[in-house]
Design goal:
globular, 3-stranded antiparallel β-sheet, mainly beta, single chain
Length: 81
Amino acid sequence: MYQVNMKQYVIIDASEVANINFDQVLETSAETLRFSLDGTKTFVKYEGTQPSFLLGKTEYNHEEILSILSGPEWADPNEPI
């Protein structure tokens, strides 16, 4: 049976942005990252094997990350969707 590579998401501290190997994730640069409202966290997404610079970090699937990103740390309730 054919299995599609599912995207995985990992939340990291903003201080770890310098450690991101953009060849191993789907984002293209630090400028394309989305940060939490307080600027302390961001996330990256990838397909396949977890990149080595993310080892030991919690992986989230698409549904899980959408739930997190709609929460108060990431979404301003006063901003229109």
